[in-house]
Each structure stands twice: as structure tokens, then as C-alpha cells.
């Protein structure tokens, strides 16, 4: 089953409801809707792909994404806009302006948070430090220790967002830098085991911060055959993450992957390719009183044309 | 009445959920998800467009910047060529400036050099066309047998120019392989700078996947080329290639 069929199925469900004429809003009034919008591996794609017959030709573009985001913000009460890293590297905009414009445009779009990808180290720690003032959104990164670097204290491991009393805990995980990034560029940044760190984060966010939903912004990569940690292994090894928004492997998922931990906890994993060709969208509903995720679907269908994800 | 309604809604929703369980998403029917294509029909946000506009102009300007001059065209050819030699030599030079250890040699493949450097003034945009890929320099530590395997492919396939190495081709086989001046020793390790793409086994150079060590230089291929041309221009020198014989092909 591909994404298109899935959407069609969902559409029939929603249409079915309105046909019987049931007041959808009665139930909706008792729930809190949360809309997660996300990107990954933007790779400095400020402009759309040239419309010259190539694959994805004419698609993408940051000012178009801004229009989409703005539309959705008008329709939905609670929106979080997130990025899973590798904002940088890939077009002359990065070569010439060192990431300044990418950060400014993401700030204009009111990104709520991002994590760091390996390419965000491409101009070294100093290059990142220089551009940080242009980012009016936090970088969340829990498993890089910057204590012995010029970036000490510039990033938070996690952040708690509150929407209508709903507490959303969010943390970031980065990929091992050794071998992937030149030592000159990451300097004394210390990479820590994502699994151990994620367990601590879940504990902190669930127990201390009383979060109702836990989101991990991950630049670990979706899936590797070898032992290297990836989003799927993370979900299997760490109980309690509700949603992993991934990156690095430029994976176009037909459907988000659902992983069930041995404890029974379910983690949803999504990734939307690269270059901002797609905007990821996931809608959650919560019971207003218990703040538990409910079984109710939103009737809203944001896709007005068939999606081809291959 | 309201209670009755909400109950029946719940029941219906549950039914729908269960029904959709069968067809759609087994474990979590409470989520609806999609990714939204950022299509050309979407009108760009005017504020962001205005933000981008001056940068776009500068990109156009910078692409037209003249960074150097070539008295003759540099193109690729089998085994060794003006463009091939120029690029592998600058890869070695630029990597040596940044890498702490010794680097013995360099290689890339003709397939990665997309256009010749034209005769005359060379614009920045030309180098983006020559090297459109976001490849970066890596230093591989290889054992002698792997280096030998590389030269065997280079001799047969003809598309891999080399820096600081020479060899002779006879019947499609590499002979008399020398790194610097010294004959290749199979029991010795060598360091080679190439692109991360080739280091990953691209262009049929799968032996590079046997590298004992892979280290990033911290420099993109394109930036290395631009840097070299700028250095030449600063010294008042033109773009040109070393043309001493690196590969001798025996009939």
C-alpha cells in the first residue's frame, strides 16, 4: 500500500463521517489538535529545483513552503514547525553566504526548533557560531557535548512546548561526527551514545517535565544494515519516544514507520526526503482533559493532489 | 441527547478505526499523516521572496566573477589530460595544506569533471558547472595490494588521472607503478586523497571501500578548485596543467 492509497482510504473515512451528518465539532471541542510540520536535509535549497524536466523539477522552494506553512497555521490552532538537520550545503547560496540566508528564512517561517546535521558543521564550529544570531529558533541537541568548544552553552538538549495545556517535550540527536565530518570542523565536540542519552531525555521529559508527547529530532539516519545506530534501532531500544522526525539518509517514506517497543510503546518515525520538496505533516489529537492521545482522526486533508513519493 | 451523540460518534469512530486497521495502518489508527508536496502551483510568499531577492542578485553576480585565466582549454582524455592532471594535482596540494599527515598521491575520475575549463577568462559559474557535485576531499589509507588493485582498474578503464604517481600500461595491465619516485611496495601502506564519492566505491573503484582509514580533509572538491585558481591568479599565473608523462602506454 502506498501513501496515495492510504490517503484515499483516510479521505473516504472522513467523507463517510460528514455524509451521515454527525457533528464532528462536538467531539472536536473536547480535544486538542496538534499539527507537526517538518523538514529535513534542506541542503540550502532556497530556490525550487529548475523546472527542466528533471525529477522533482519545479518543486520545492522556501518561499513556497512559507506560503504552505502560513496556510496551515491559519487552519490549525497548534502548529509546530521543525527541522531535523543538514540545513546547509548544496547550492551556491551556502557557498557564498555561509548559511545566513537559510537561517533567516527559517526564522521568517517561524521554525520552532531544529537539530544539527553533519553538514551544519561544514564551516566549522566558528562558521556555525557566526550564523547563530540569524536563527531565531533553538537548536536542540542532546548527545553532542560542546563544553570544550566555542559553542559551549549555545544549544539546549531539549525544550518543552506548551499548547493549550498540552506539554510537548522535544529533544535532538546527532550522528557520530568522526569519519563523517573533518576533525578540523567539529573540534572538541564530543559525541555521546544516542541510546543512553535518549533514555535520559525520555525520563526527564516524561517524569520531571510531565510531557504528554515526546518528539525526537534525529539526524541519525533512517535505517542501516550494519550495526550503526539509526531511527528504527533507536525506537526499538528506547521506550517512550512518540515521534522521531528523522534525516540524513534522505529517505522518502511512503508511510511513516511505526515501531513497537518490547514494552508496547509505539514510536512513529517519519522523514521527508530532502531539499524541501515535501513538507512533512502529522496531526495528533488529544483528549482535552486527560491529555491522552485519542483515536479520533482529524477530518482535514491537507493534500489536494495525489502525492507521488517515489 | 448530546451525550447520546458523542457516544455514537465514539462508537462510529472506533468502528472506522477498526475498519481502517484492516486496510490501512495496523497499530495506530489515531493518526492521520501525509507529506505535502511543495509544488510549483503554490504562490511564493512575497515577504520571503523579497528577503531572497538581493541574495539571488548577488549569486548571479558572483557566478559571473572572473577568478582566473586559461591560455588554452583544459579538457579530459584517457589516462592523463590537462584537466585531469590539473585537478588531481590541486587536490593533492590543497589537501596537503590542511591534512596533518603525509599524503602520497591523488586521484579522481573523468566522469566527475563535467565540462572543460574553457580558454580565456574563467568565471566562478564555470567551476560550478565543472564540479556540480557536493563532493569533498577525503584521505584514504590503503595497503599496497589495494593500491595495486586501483592501478589495475586505472590501467584498464583509463579514466582515473593520478598525481604524484606514474605507471606503464601493457595489455591493459599496470606495470612499473611508482609512487613519487619509488616503486610500489605491496607490504607498505599509502595515503591517497580522492573524493568521498569515489571513496565510497563510486565509478567502479570498489577497492577504495577496503581503506584502512578514511579521513575528511574538510574541503569540498569545488572549493579546492576555486582556491587553487584564486591562488594562481593572486600570483599572476594562468591556469595550466603539468604535462610530464605520468602514464606510458606500450603498444
Automatic annotation (TrEMBL), chain A:
Keywords: Hydrolase, Nucleotide-binding, Signal. Residues 34-251 form the Calcineurin-like phosphoesterase domain. One of its GO terms (molecular function) is UDP-sugar diphosphatase activity. Residues 1-28 form the signal peptide. The keyword Nucleotide-binding applies. Pfam families: Metallophos. GO terms for biological process: nucleotide catabolic process. GO terms for cellular component: outer membrane-bounded periplasmic space. Belongs to the 5'-nucleotidase family. This is 5'-nucleotidase. It comes from Pontibacter ummariensis.
Automatic annotation (TrEMBL), chain B:
It comes from Pontibacter ummariensis. Residues 1-26 form the signal peptide. GO terms for molecular function: hydrolase activity. One of its GO terms (biological process) is nucleotide catabolic process. Keywords: Signal. PROSITE patterns: PROKAR_LIPOPROTEIN (PS51257). Pfam families: 5_nucleotid_C (PF02872). PANTHER family: 5'-NUCLEOTIDASE, 5'-NUCLEOTIDASE-RELATED. The keyword Signal applies. This is 5'-nucleotidase, C-terminal domain. Residues 78-209 form the 5'-Nucleotidase C-terminal domain. GO terms for cellular component: outer membrane-bounded periplasmic space.
Amino acid at each position: 500500500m502506498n501513501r496515495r492509497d492510504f490517503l484515499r482510504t483516510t479521505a473516504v473515512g472522513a467523507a463517510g463521517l460528514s455524509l451521515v451528518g454527525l457533528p464532528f465539532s462536538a467531539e472536536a471541542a473536547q480535544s486538542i489538535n496538534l499539527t507537526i510540520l517538518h523538514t529535513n536535509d534542506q541542503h540550502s535549497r532556497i530556490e525550487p529545483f529548475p523546472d527542466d524536466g528533471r525529477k522533482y523539477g519545479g518543486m520545492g522552494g522556501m518561499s513556497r513552503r512559507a506560503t504552505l506553512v502560513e496556510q496551515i497555521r491559519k487552519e490549525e490552532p497548534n502548529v509546530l514547525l521543525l527541522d531535523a538537520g543538514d540545513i546547509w550545503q548544496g547550492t551556491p547560496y551556502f557557498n557564498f553566504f555561509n548559511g545566513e540566508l537559510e537561517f533567516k528564512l527559517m526564522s521568517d517561517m517561524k521554525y520552532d526548533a531544529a537539530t544539527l546535521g553533519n553538514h551544519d558543521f561544514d564551516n566549522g564550529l566558528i562558521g556555525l557560531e557566526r550564523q547563530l544570531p540569524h536563527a531565531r529558533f533553538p537548536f536542540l541537541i542532546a548527545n553532542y557535548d560542546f563544553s570544550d568548544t566555542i559553542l559551549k552553552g549555545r544549544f539546549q538538549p531539549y525544550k518543552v512546548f506548551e499548547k493549550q495545556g498540552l506539554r510537548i517535550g522535544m529533544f535532538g540527536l546527532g550522528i557520530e561526527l568522526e569519519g563523517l565530518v573533518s576533525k578540523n570542523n567539529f573540534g572538541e565536540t564530543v559525541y555521546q551514545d544516542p541510546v543512553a542519552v535518549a533514555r535520559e531525555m525520555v525520563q526527564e521529559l516524561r517524569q520531571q517535565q510531565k510531557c504528554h508527547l515526546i518528539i525526537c529530532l534525529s539526524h541519525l539516519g533512517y535505517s542501516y544494515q550494519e550495526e550503526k545506530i539509526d531511527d528504527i534501532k533507536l525506537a526499538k531500544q528506547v521506550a517512550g519516544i512518540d515521534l522521531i522526525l528523522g534525516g540524513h539518509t534522505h529517505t522518502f517514506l511512503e508511510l511513516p514507520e511505526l515501531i513497537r517497543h518490547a514494552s508496547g510503546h509505539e514510536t512513529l518515525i517519519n522523514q521527508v526526503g530532502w531539499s524541501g520538496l515535501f513538507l512533512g505533516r502529522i496531526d495528533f489529537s488529544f483528549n482535552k482533559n486527560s491529555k491522552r492521545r485519542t483515536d479520533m482522526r482529524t477530518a482535514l486533508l491537507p493534500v489536494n493532489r495525489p502525492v507521488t513519493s517515489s | 441527547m448530546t451525550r447520546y451523540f458523542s457516544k455514537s460518534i465514539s462508537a462510529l469512530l472506533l468502528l472506522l478505526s477498526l475498519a481502517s486497521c484492516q486496510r490501512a495502518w495496523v497499530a495506530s489508527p489515531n493518526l492521520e499523516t501525509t507529506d505535502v508536496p511543495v509544488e510549483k502551483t503554490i504562490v511564493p510568499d512575497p515577504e520571503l521572496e523579497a528577503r531572497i531577492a538581493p541574495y539571488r542578485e548577488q549569486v548571479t553576480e558572483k557566478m559571473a566573477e572572473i577568478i582566473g585565466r586559461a591560455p588554452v582549454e583544459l579538457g579530459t582524455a584517457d589516462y592523463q589530460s590537462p584537466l585531469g592532471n590539473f585537478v588531481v594535482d590541486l587536490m593533492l596540494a590543497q589537501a596537503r595544506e590542511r591534512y596533518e599527515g603525509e599524503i602520497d598521491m591523488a586521484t579522481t575520475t573523468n566522469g566527475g569533471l563535467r565540462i572543460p575549463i574553457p580558454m580565456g577568462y574563467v568565471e566562478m559559474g564555470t567551476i560550478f558547472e565543472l564540479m556540480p557535485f557536493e563532493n569533498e576531499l577525503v584521505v584514504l589509507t590503503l595497503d599496497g595490494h589495494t593500491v595495486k588493485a586501483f592501478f589495475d582498474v586505472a590501467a584498464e578503464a583509463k579514466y582515473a588521472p593520478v598525481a604524484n604517481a606514474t605507471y606503464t600500461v601493457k595489455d591493459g595491465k599496470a606495470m612499473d607503478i611508482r609512487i613519487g619516485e619509488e616503486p610500489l611496495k605491496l607490504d607498505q601502506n599509502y595515503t591517497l586523497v580522492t573524493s568521498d564519492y569515489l571513496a565510497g566505491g563510486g565509478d567502479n573503484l570498489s577497492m577504495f571501500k577496503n581503506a584502512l582509514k578514511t579521513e575528511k580533509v574538510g574541503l569540498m572538491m569545488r572549493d579546492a578548485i576555486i582556491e587553487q585558481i584564486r591562488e594562481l591568479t593572486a600570483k599572476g599565473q594562468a591556469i595550466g596543467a603539468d604535462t610530464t608523462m605520468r602514464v606510458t602506454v606500450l603498444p
